[in-house]
Design brief:
Radius of gyration: 19 Å
Strand order of the largest sheet: 3-2-1-4-5-6-11
CATH superfamily: NAD(P)-binding Rossmann-like Domain
Bound molecules: nicotinamide-adenine-dinucleotide
Order of helices and strands: EHEEEHHEHEEHEEEHEEHEHH
Strand content: 15-25%
CATH topology: Rossmann fold
Largest sheet: 7 strands, parallel
Distance between the termini: 36 Å
Number of helices: 9
Number of domains: 1
Helix content: 25-40%
């Protein structure tokens, strides 16, 4: 049986990826230091003989007494919300190191194992994009010193070092540029837009929007994103490829707020409270034609269905 290592496997995306890989018959090793997640996300896998979990900081060298065939690197804080205690603003050094030193350590580990390697990059490498939708060839509009640079630039360096191992060391690597994903197991403390809207609506509190709500986002349900990551890792002809994984369905932030209000049957009013955070992108939408051709992949879960599943999770 092939053994797959998932760094960040206790996180939101990582835990769903572990579930999917186990379902497909792989043996899975989760490596996580629980910096931005809780053990709860993987507690249902405790008695699964094909699953094991190691508490480890990926910035330290990783030594295992068995071989793995694939390494997914999803270990990094991901929330952009300034008010969240687990956002990359609250964990700046941890974020920069996880995507740089952490990526290097996992690449060295993959090289020793001759394992395939996938780096979870982000749409944030495009910064505040000047091209819409964003194709993989687009080089981005990113500030090296702005508040989001902690995340954006460390992801960009993570890509650089991954590409170096591909080019110079002939490692089989893949880079997934993941766009906003939502779904069950997102942490409340994470405070990403959709979680805030859902929790506010469920409590009957005002739903707060930064700015005038005309900025757009494209949200992909976690099940779809995870399938994209699996196809990129295991698919034929994906060696060395960089692929956008996300939804091409663009909505304004106000539309998301209105939909959440409708689906939660909430009496909350929608209010426009603060100005947009500095460097907050105005538009974000992937061009996913490469994923469609290369991976035969595109998001399948309709927005309302995904939102209802997420709302149910937060209700529970
Ligand atoms: N969720 C999204 O919308 C999205 C979008 C773009 C990119 N991504 C990327 O996907 C990956 C997963 O994101 P997520 O939303 O699941 O975030 P998450 O915070 O839920 O999961 C990240 C996991 O990594 C772990 N971790 C962090 N630093 C670590 C370290 N040094 N050593 C070991 N474990 C560490 C955390 O404890 C957590 O379990 C991240 O790399 C993120 O940048 C996510």
């Amino acid at each position: 049986m092939e053994t797959v290592l998932v760094a960040g496997g206790a996180g939101f995306l990582g835990s769903h990826l572990c579930d999917k890989l186990l379902k497909e018959g792989y043996s899975v090793v989760c490596v996580d230091n629980f910096l931005t997640s809780s053990l709860e996300n993987i507690s249902h896998l405790r008695d699964n003989k094909s699953f094991s979990s190691i508490n480890h900081d990926i910035c330290e060298p990783l030594k295992l007494d068995f071989k793995v065939t694939h390494v997914f690197h999803l270990a990094s804080p991901a929330s952009p919300n300034h008010h969240s205690k687990i956002s990359y603003h609250s964990l700046p050094l941890e974020t920069m190191l996880a995507n740089t030193t952490g990526t290097l350590e996992l690449l060295k580990f993959a090289e020793k194992n001759n394992a395939k390697f996938l780096f979870a990059s982000s749409s944030e490498v495009y910064g505040d994009p000047l091209e819409h939708p964003q194709k993989e060839e687009y080089r981005g509009n990113v500030s090296t010193t702005g508040p989001r640079s902690i995340y954006d630039e460390s992801k960009r360096f993570g890509e650089t070092i991954t590409a170096y191992f591909s080019r110079n060391k002939k490692l089989d690597t893949k880079i997934a540029r993941i766009f906003n994903t939502y779904g069950p197991r997102m942490m409340k403390e994470d405070m990403r837009m959709i979680i805030i809207f859902i929790t506010q609506a469920l409590r009957g509190e005002p739903i707060t929007i930064f700015g005038d709500g005309s900025q757009t986002r494209s949200l992909c349900f976690v099940e779809d994103t995870v399938l994209g990551l699996v196809r990129l890792m295991f698919g034929d002809g994906t060696k060395g490829e960089v692929v956008n994984i996300g939804s091409g369905e663009e909505h304004t932030v106000l539309e998301f707020a209105e939909l959440v209000k409708k689906l939660t049957v909430s009496s909350s009013e929608i209010i426009f409270s603060e100005k947009l955070p500095e460097d907050d992108p105005i538009r974000r939408k992937p061009d996913i034609s490469k994923a469609k051709t290369l991976l035969d992949w595109e998001p399948k879960v309709p927005l309302e269905e995904g939102l209802l599943k997420t709302i149910q999770y937060f209700k529970n």
